[in-house]
Structures are given as structure tokens and as C-alpha cells.
Specification:
The protein is of the alpha/beta class and 335 residues long. It has ten helices and seven strands.
């Protein structure tokens, strides 16, 4: 089954679909929050304030926000080592994320996960899985559990273009397909698996074309257009919830930072970076909001200032959080 642009199932429209001003501004603020969080965290790591390493998502904000906005509170997501944006989009607070990145016992994973393993099951996010493609069979298993329990929940499984070369991709998608499981497979195609360009490792033009091999629907979407992402995800979620899933969404986007904090991105051609910079998801959506008369530039500036203030306050609070104790080494250990 190939790309389908019409909505396959009727479902009550969200306020976003109705063009509700507060909902649309909420999408914008969430994207700005992700960008400001990532930019702030980058400098905290560079100055040695935080332990470990980071994999960031500047430029990919619309994929996380658009998909998570299409989910219901009872739905779940699985993430990757590049999971800060997914976490913030799913409703985790910048405070609990920063506490985790500082290694504090009050972090979303009690300081035991760090940057590559953020999550909060109470908010519908499985802690990130650093193994490339590792979340794909897990998402299928979760969806199987939902189906066996007759639970009307959907799993949105985020992964990058590099993951489609893993055996776990084939196994997880195939299992979900043959059992009609409620999984939305979300491939954030940012063109590079680490430093290897995607067209060097596959013959098909679009990753979504691979859906045909499993007998499911695939769709390629402009991943830097938050409303396009939302509309595609909303339709796909409705399919999954009604037993017509799974669905593979390929979201075309671009990361404006390196694969990890030590990557200078020399493999990205300057003209390519410039082209994608002109397609920045936050700037594009800001223009849409202004053109619709929903906000002016001063209003957008106020949103950014508010977000920056919250981030800075959260950083100061995070610096004072308690670190885990030696006794914490034996808690939350099951094998």
C-alpha cells in the first residue's frame, strides 16, 4: 500500500484541526521550548557542567511536536538516544529532563539514564533506547499487549533513517504488519545515519516505499512543516486505533548539529545546510501564524522570552538537586 493523502477514518477533530489559536500557539511554544532547551544544554555540556554526552535535535522540532500532538494521553512513544525533543513534545517538563541530565536523583529516571535514556512512563514515554532500531520491536510488543488487552492505545515509535538498515526494523515492522498492531512507525529521515548519507545505503528513493514490502501504508511528509506532520500523524493514529495499522511515516527533516557533541558536521555540504536553514520549522510556522493573523512578531518574541526564562530558572534549580547515593545502586534493579 502506497502513499495515501486522504484521512482514512472519521474522528473528532482536535482544536488544532479547527485552527484554534491557543492550540496553534501551543505547537509553536513547544517547538521553541525544544530549540531553547537544546541550545542551552549544548553550552552546559561544552563548559563541562554536565556529565556524559548528548545527541541533539535542533532543526527537527516539528517531527516530535507534530506527532505527539496527534496522540491521546493514553498513547505511548518509544524514543532513541536523540530523545530530548520527543520527551518535551510528549509532556515531560524541562525541569525533570534537566535534573536527569545533571545526574540528579530527582531526574525523570532518577539520574540513572542520562541524556540518551530519558523518559517517563507516567507521561507515556518509554525511556530512550540507545541501540539503533532497538525501540522498533519493543513498540510492536507494546502494541501487541494493547491489542490483547483490548486497550485503545497506540504506540508511536521514533527512529532515524539509519535504523531502517537494522534487522530489528524488518522484524518489528513485519510482526506489527502481520498482526495488525496499533503502531505508528515514525522515521525521522534527517539524511544522515551518523555521517553516512542515506542515499548511499539504499536504492529506493523514499524510506516510506519500504512499507509496500510489508503490506502496510507508507507516507512521506515534509517533516519541517509541523501542521503537515500533525495531519499525517493524526490520520495514521486513527487507522492504528481502528485496527487498520500499522503505518510507516517518513518525515523529511534535517539536524542542524552533529551526530553527537563532538561531531563538527564536515560531511554536510555548506549549500545543503543553507538550504535546510531556510526551511527551519520554527521560522516557517511563525510565518504561518503571522499570516493567519493569530499573532504578531512581538507576541512570538514574548513566547521565546518566557521559554528562555523558564529554562534558565530550571538550570539554577537543577544545579542544587541531590545526587544519587550508594544505596541507589541496588534500587530499580530486576536482574
Amino acid at each position: 500500500m502506497q502513499e495515501q493523502t486522504s484521512t482514512p477514518n472519521e474522528h473528532p477533530p482536535h482544536s488544532i484541526e479547527r485552527g484554534h489559536r491557543d492550540s496553534l500557539l501551543g505547537l509553536y511554544e513547544r517547538m521553541v521550548l525544544i530549540r531553547e532547551f537544546e541550545e542551552g544544554v549544548k553550552f552546559l555540556f561544552l563548559e563541562g557542567t554536565m556529565p556524559g554526552t548528548i545527541h541533539q535535535c535542533q532543526g527537527q522540532e516539528a517531527t516530535a511536536v507534530g506527532v505527539c500532538a496527534a496522540l491521546d494521553p493514553g498513547d505511548f512513544i518509544t524514543s532513541t538516544f536523540r530523545g530530548h525533543g520527543h520527551a518535551l513534545a510528549k509532556g515531560l517538563t524541562p525541569e525533570e529532563l534537566l535534573f536527569e541530565l545533571f545526574g540528579a536523583a530527582t531526574g525523570c529516571c532518577k539520574g540513572k539514564g542520562g541524556s540518551m535514556h530519558v523518559g517517563n512512563m507516567a507521561r507515556g514515554m518509554v525511556p530512550g533506547i540507545a541501540i539503533v532500531g532497538g525501540g522498533i520491536p519493543l513498540a510492536a510488543g507494546m502494541a501487541l499487549a494493547f491489542k490483547m488487552r483490548k486497550q485503545q492505545s497506540v504506540v508511536a515509535c521514533f527512529f532515524g533513517d539509519g535504523a531502517v538498515a537494522e534487522g530489528a526494523f524488518h522484524e518489528g515492522v513485519n510482526l506489527a504488519a502481520i498482526w495488525d498492531l496499533p503502531v505508528l512507525f515514525v522515521c525521522e529521515n534527517n539524511l544522515y545515519g551518523a555521517s553516512t548519507r542515506v542515499d548511499q545505503v539504499m536504492r529506493v528513493k523514499q524510506i516510506a516505499d519500504r512499507a509496500a514490502g510489508y503490506g502496510i501504508r507508507g507516507q512521506t511528509v515534509d517533516g519541517n512543516d509541523v501542521l503537515a506532520v500533525y495531519q499525517a500523524a493524526r490520520a495514521a493514529v486513527a487507522e492504528c486505533r481502528s485496527g487498520q495499522g500499522p503505518v510507516l511515516l517518513e518525515l523529511l527533516t534535517y539536524r542542524r548539529t552533529g551526530h553527537s557533541r563532538r561531531d563538527a558536521c564536515h560531511y554536510q555540504p555548506p549549500e545543503e545546510r543553507e538550504e535546510w536553514s531556510r526551511r527551519d520549522p520554527i521560522d516557517r510556522f511563525a510565518q504561518v501564524l503571522i499570516e493567519r493573523g493569530l499573532v504578531d512578531q512581538a507576541g512570538l518574541d514574548q513566547i521565546r522570552t518566557r521559554v528562555q526564562g523558564r529554562f534558565q530558572a530550571a538550570v539554577e534549580t537543577a544545579r542544587a538537586q541531590p545526587l544519587p547515593t550508594l544505596d541507589d545502586l541496588t534500587t530499580d534493579v530486576f536482574s
